[in-house]
Structures are given as structure tokens and as C-alpha cells.
From TrEMBL:
Ranges annotated as spanning the membrane: none
Residue span(s) of domain RNA polymerase sigma-70 region: 28-95
Keywords (A to Z) from UniProt: DNA-binding, Sigma factor, Transcription, Transcription regulation
Any one biological process term the GO annotation gives: DNA-templated transcription initiation
Pfam families, sorted: Sigma70_r2, Sigma70_r4_2
NAD recorded as keyword: no
Family: Belongs to the sigma-70 factor family. ECF subfamily.
Chain ranges of the RNA polymerase sigma factor 70 region 4 type domain: 134-173
GO molecular function: DNA binding; sigma factor activity
PANTHER family the UniProt entry points to: RNA POLYMERASE ECF-TYPE SIGMA FACTO (PTHR43133), RNA POLYMERASE SIGMA FACTOR HI_1459-RELATED (PTHR43133:SF8)
Protein name as annotated: RNA polymerase, sigma subunit, ECF family
Annotated InterPro entries: RNA_pol_sigma-70-like, RNA_pol_sigma-70_dom, RNA_pol_sigma70_r2, RNA_pol_sigma70_r4_t2, RNA_pol_sigma_r2, RNA_pol_sigma_r3/r4-like, WH-like_DNA-bd_sf
Length: 199
């Protein structure tokens, strides 16, 4: 059987056994989707290409260290690595992602909007960096079904239609879970007294 017909997990197994061609097939299979996800968040092709390369270096390192255990879920795992590298980039650039509840029912919904911090003093910069970390932590406290919706929509850049198909639910159910996720995030924000309006 040609390698291009093998599933991801089999390709990973062959690659770890020393078959470099297996990883090439894996890369060709997923590179467009992973790159689009990175570029969509950065809107800068050169930087997106750098982070894309870094993503696959990290993927290779993790595989060779034997730390990959996401059986059958290579693409979501790779997307999370890319997303974390994008977040790292924003941190280094003094920019961060903030909660934004606009258009939860819209397919162009984005729970994060990027804010520039060029004119902020050090104290404000530290506060925003802490807030970003807290927001990411708050998402982890959501019910699993709601957390999965946010991770698929934001971190994996899937449409609500794709999420509905992946979860085997209706689009309305996916939208409903996102809505409740936002409601719960608002409650968590109020409970922890986080300030998200930093204009």
C-alpha cells in the first residue's frame, strides 16, 4: 500500500522506525491547514513561515523523544503546538490576546483580539501579560464540552460546521456550547475580578 493511504498513526510509527519518507507524507498531508491556521492569526507571511518551520522542528523533537501520545489525533496536537508558538511570539512582541465576546454566532468569531502595547509602561505591560496567562488558565476550568468547542474554534481554527461534524453534533448545538462557554468565562472573569477592558 502506498504511504499516502496510511493513517497518521501508522506514518508516525514508520517514521520512528527510521523511515524519513513517512514524515514527508505526514508533512505534505497537513502542512497547508497548519500554515493557514498560523497565517490567519499573524497576517504576516514571513513570520508565519518562520513559526511554521519552528512548529515542525518541535513536532520532530517531540516525536523523537518519545513524548507523543495523542494516538490518532496528530493534526489537533500539531495545531496546539503551532498555537502555543504563536502565543509565544505575541508575548515576545509585547502584544497579547484578550477576551472578546463579539459575534459568538458568527463564523468569523474570534474570542481573542490582538492589542498593541507599544505605549504602555512596564507595570501595565506586566499586568497584561499576567492577564493573558490567567485567561488561558480560565478556559481550562470550563466544562469539557465547552472547552473543546473553544479549542477547536480558536486554537485549531475550525469553522462551526467543521466542529459540528467532528463532534457529531448540530451546528446549533456547537453554537450553543460556545455561547455557554462565553457565559461561564464571564462568570469566571467576574469571580476572579479580572479587568478585560483595557482601552
Amino acid at each position: 500500500m502506498a504511504m499516502k493511504f496510511l493513517d497518521d498513526q501508522v506514518l508516525i510509527h514508520y517514521y520512528l522506525e527510521g523511515d524519513e519518507k513517512a514524515f514527508e507524507v505526514l508533512l505534505l498531508r497537513h502542512k497547508d491547514k497548519i500554515f493557514r491556521s498560523i497565517y490567519h492569526k499573524l497576517r504576516d507571511r514571513e513570520i508565519a513561515e518562520d513559526i511554521f518551520q519552528e512548529t515542525f522542528v518541535k513536532i520532530i523533537q517531540t516525536l523523537k523523544l518519545g513524548n507523543y501520545n495523542e494516538e490518532g489525533k496528530f493534526l489537533p496536537w500539531a495545531m496546539r503546538i503551532a498555537q502555543n508558538l504563536v502565543i509565544d511570539y505575541f508575548r515576545k512582541q509585547g502584544r497579547m490576546k484578550m477576551i472578546n465576546e463579539r459575534s459568538a454566532k458568527s463564523d468569523d468569531f474570534n474570542i481573542f483580539s490582538i492589542l498593541k502595547m507599544d505605549e504602555l509602561n512596564i507595570e501595565q505591560s506586566i499586568s497584561k501579560d499576567e492577564l493573558e496567562s490567567q485567561m488561558i488558565q480560565l478556559i481550562q476550568h470550563l466544562p469539557e464540552s465547552q472547552k473543546e468547542i473553544i479549542e477547536k474554534r480558536i486554537f485549531q481554527d475550525l469553522s462551526f460546521k467543521d466542529i459540528a461534524e467532528a463532534e457529531n453534533i448540530s451546528i446549533n448545538t456547537a453554537l450553543g456550547r460556545m455561547r455557554y462557554a462565553l457565559i461561564n468565562l464571564r462568570k469566571l472573569i467576574e469571580k476572579h475580578q479580572l479587568v478585560t477592558d483595557l482601552d
